Amino acid sequence: MSDFLKLDLLGASIALKNKEISSVELTNAYINAIEKTSSLGAYLDVQADYALEMANRSDKKIQQGTAGPLEGIPIGVKDMFCTKNIKTTASSKILENFYPTYESTVTQNLWNDGAVMLGKLSCDEFAMGSSNETAAKGNVINPWSKTNPMSPGGSSGGSAAAVAARSALAATGTDTGGSIRQPAAFCGITGLKPTYGRCSRWGIVAFSSSLDQAGPLTRTVSDAALMLNSMAGYDVKDSTSANISMPDLMTYLDNSIKGKKIGIPKEYTQDGISQDIMKFYESSINWLKDSGAEIVPVSLPHTKYALPVYYIIAPAEASSNLARYDGVRYGARNEAATLDEMYELTRGNGFGDEVKRRIMIGTYVLSSGYYDAYYLKAQKVRRLIKEDFENVFKNVDYLLTPSTPTTAFELGQKQDPLTMYLNDIFTVPASLAGVPGISIPVGLDSSGLPVGVQLIANSFDEPGLINVARTLEKCADFNLIPDGAAK
Ligand code: GLN
Known about the structure:
- The chain is α/β, with parallel strands linked by helices.
- It has helices spanning 3-6, 9-17, 23-36, 48-64, 105-112, 157-164, 181-187, 221-231, 275-290, 306-321, 339-350, 353-366, 371-392, 417-421, 428-433, 462-476, and strands at residues 43-46, 74-78, 116-121, 171-175, 190-193, 213-218, 261-265, 294-298, 398-402, 437-444, 450-457.
- An 8-stranded mixed beta sheet has the order 4-6-5-10-11-9-7-8, with helices on both faces. The chain has a 3-stranded mixed beta sheet with strand order 1-3-2, sandwiched between helices.
- Helix 6 (157-164) packs parallel to helix 7 and helix 10 (306-321) crosses helix 12 (353-366).
- It binds glutamine.
């Protein structure tokens, strides 16, 4: 493997600031890596010339001593983030020729801090999915695949595959019900979903507005801290953006976790969870205990309702958000004799099956006869789920859970939507409660596939979350690189 690709984000930024390497050299190494790993299908669009231009500018800033915290660092962007004058499709046919005239706040924050954009990364269509298989442009392959091609997880499958395959130093993702944490677990990398409101949603293609949250996918916890430092921040353009400042996460990494209380929720260790995952989950509990934490059994009694609640609220909001794709305002349009026919043709041709399924479920649960029975009920149960977390965080500082019930599965293996939805069983509750969660890799299962565990913190305690995640990362010492990575 090229020496450039061996550096993680933190290592690369130190080497850049010490002028041991240049951003143009580093960016070229990543452009090569993207070419070498193109069969994985992680990138929808590679912006090599633009990246080199940005890298050049970064090198000048480093020379002049005006470098930002991410100066010269080449990253990939999930195709849910609008990028000015650069095609943004949300992996959907209906947006196949959409060139935004604006830049999302989160990506703008990254460019302001000096990051270099390599290109746009594949995801499930409108971020709806857990396997990246609903992407209009086809599958992404998990770089850990052995004989058969495996799913990288979803919906941020392209982001996770690219970071694991060393074709991006880090990537942005969005997480509505697990789309950062689950693919990170499947690809053996770190994925952080911040508190709802921590990162602005402005300029991110909307899926489910009360749940969507941007976050980083990275090789290490320190890299996640560096990325989130730049991505987060109050934004007047997003009315749900939180005006709560976040301290520099890097200063919390190496604090002791002695005396911290880690809750082990009993609802997260029931049926259907793989033996290998249980084994690493138990090791993780022990590692935290050996690091001085106190392990406390806890209960989040409404956990079993999280999936049904999520699969009412998320489609309801999606059906409303996706009403804007009408052939008039954005993207594709199919001409027809009447206006209604034009809508039907445009939306019928433009959306894939999973998106149509969500629009139908969402429209149904919001319809006047069923609103109280489904949508309103789901909102009430969501409140109970949120209260579970509020109650438990009166007694413990963090929660430790598995990230997923299984490791990566083969592409095409989960045909039925309900089986697919079960993937999110451990990630959805934190999304409904709006609290931050991180998945970190802790080992390989008996088939050689990565296992992730999830840490969850109280709202706005990203500093503490980073600290305990870093502690666990040191204990697990997972530093394996998949066979599918760029050499
Ligand atoms: N897999 C979940 C879904 O399909 C979560 C997706 C996400 O977090 N964007 O809705």
